[in-house]
Amino acid sequence: MLAMNYRGPQRVRIDHKPYPKIEHPQDAIIRVTRSCICGSDLHLYNGNVPDTRVGMTFGHEFTGVVEEIGPDVEKLKVGDQVLVPFNISCGKCHFCKQGLYGNCHESNSQATAVGGIFGYSHTAGGYDGGQAEYVRVPYANVGPTVIPPGMDLDDAVLLTDVVPTGYQAAEMGGIQPGDTVVVFGAGPVGIMAAKCSWLFGAGRVIVIDHVDYRLEFVRNYAQCEAYNFKEMDDPVVFLKRTTDWMGADVCIDAVGAEAAGSALQTITGRKLLLQAGSATALHWAINSVKKGGIVSIVGVYGPTDNLVPIGNVVNKGLTIRANQASVKRLLPRLIEHVQNGVLNPKALITHRVPLEDVADAYHIFSEKLDNCIKPVLIPSSKR
Amino acid sequence: MNNTAKDFSHIKGWGIDADPKNDPTYPMKRRTDAEQQGYSWQRPTQQPVNIEVLHSIERPNVSAVFGTSTPPSGLSGMIRRFAFKYSESSYGHWLPLLLADRVNVVEGVLEDLSKGHVPNIFAEKGWNAEWKHNPKGLVQKVAIGVLVTTAVVVLLSRKKEHKHTRHTGYSEDERYSEDQGYTSNKSYSKHDLFPESKPIK
């Protein structure tokens, strides 16, 4: 079968790899119909996540058709069209039972801090991902969800990560009606976080980024204010001024390790890998939120340390909430929102690329060429 | 900032998930306290461990399922095994893993070559797309690359020449050639050339 093959920082290609096998009684084999490249895949692509091995297949946002099931799979049957949450969750451990499906204790041997994630290095369990024609899906009774009849595949594939992550960013912000919410990052997750902030009753939503075409998109899509931090002396001062010098009630970091905006952070975090990515957005979030406010983090960072003003967190009495999205927990509500037209995820997809051109797709997304917001890879069977 | 007096009717779904009682919200919301019972749940069936799986020393076992992609191998595998002697809280864990990743890239190139496959770096880096969507940028990058490489080569060759002069004691007008040998009006002893060495008696 054809599959994306990581060869080193900023080098990927399409290769023939063996068809995946049932390895566990609860496994399913899925024929992939859509597979996105996520902003967090770029951390792997750039070689920033430890234990990213050459030969691995990335991809944690995908839909597909069930081709084969293990003897203990009861909730799926061959031929079902499914969307597959990016978290691999057993459904039995204390954390899954608490709804912490991103923190499952039975899906990742290599690290205890995070549960298993498809195609996201051995630090997240060493699973090959969905940027391929076929993929092995463990715990098929728990994660994969049958796509409701009539739902567009492009909507379904964004329900595997982007929509739940953006929604949970807003949810973790504990937004109260009338709150001012600042979202750092106008990538797909930031766009969705801005959109979802309204659902919790935000009174004002502001997005900060430096890519003009994305700012224009989010301004229209999420009906919010959007500003380019390169056009201001200091984004923190700008946000204080625009909130009557109080700061925002809630700040959301939807950028993570690839943040631009600070030479120090960029050099130490992205170039020299002396910290777990550039923490510029988080730094700004902590300094822009009001005293007693909430900082919600869904941007992905590496497992080591970051330079953040933790003293200000203490002195301002901030609450920090963060996690990988708990996709399964959120799916029923989010499917409803898509079906009712409250959310329109597929509008984020700007590039539909044949799986064979995966290297070009990564480069376009990484370099923000051709006004790219969200690329989706399509295997030959679905073209 | 309280802006609830505003009209949000133009935003479809405004406030439909607002729930003042949903605080402190996820993830604290659903805490069950079951974790106080320790590692006590009925574990799922164990996936057969028929490949090498490195596991964090912060857990007692291999998780019930695990990925089977790219087991550790070669020099990078040895470094990874070393890394897994340390906890996730230690640089001794993560820094060797980053090193192993870089070593693994070289192993990947060697593996390709051993199979008679010369990696097409241009295509793997997606430069076809760069050429299509940003030809000016690509030309600029290549030009910068050529300039930097040339500068480095020139710098290194000058340093080498300088080093050669310093070590041999040759000056600008004193040269060694294959035809003429060392040409100078002066005569040198070994001690002149290498002052730290003592003359042999």
Automatic annotation (TrEMBL), chain A:
Q: Name one GO molecular function term.
A: oxidoreductase activity
Cofactors per UniProt?
Zn(2+)
The residues covered by the Alcohol dehydrogenase-like N-terminal domain are 25-143
Q: Which UniProt keywords apply?
A: Metal-binding, Oxidoreductase, Zinc
Listed EC numbers? 1.1.1.-
Give every Alcohol dehydrogenase-like C-terminal domain span: 188-267
Q: Does the keyword Oxidoreductase apply?
A: yes
Query: Which Pfam families does the protein's record reference?
Result: ADH_N (PF08240), ADH_zinc_N (PF00107)
Q: Which family does it belong to?
A: Belongs to the zinc-containing alcohol dehydrogenase family.
**Name of the protein:** Zinc-dependent alcohol dehydrogenase
Name the source organism: Rhodocytophaga aerolata
The opening ranks of the lineage are: Bacteria, Pseudomonadati, Bacteroidota, Cytophagia, Cytophagales
